[in-house]
Amino acid sequence: MRSRYTAFATGDAAYLLHSWHPETRPPAVRLDPTQRWTRLEILATTGGGLLHTEGTVEFRAHYTHSTHSGVLQEQSRFTKVDGRWVYVDGDTSNSG
C-alpha cells in the first residue's frame, strides 16, 4: 500500500498499473498533476503476511487540489500473484 501511495504522490502511473491485479487493472491511469498527496495514514490491516495470499488495508490519504484539501479513505483488497502483492479493488469515500 505504501508503495502505491508513493506512486500516486510521485506521478508514477506505470508502477500503479504494474501493481494492479490483471483482472481489475484499467487500460490506463490518468493522474492529475495539480493534485498533491500530502500524508498517508494506515488505519487497519488484515492478512498480508508471509504465509497469506490475501489481505486488506484501510487507509486515509490526504491531499491538496487547487485551493482545497481533502481526504480519500479506502478499504483496499490485495492478493498475491506470482509471489507479489497486487491491488485488486477498494471501497472508497472522499471528503473535501
UniProtKB/TrEMBL annotation:
Residues 1-90 form the YchJ-like middle NTF2-like domain. InterPro entries: NTF2-like_dom_sf, YchJ-like_M. Gene3D superfamilies: 3.10.450.50. SUPFAM superfamilies: NTF2-like. It comes from the Bacteria. Pfam families: YchJ_M-like (PF17775). This is SEC-C motif-containing protein.
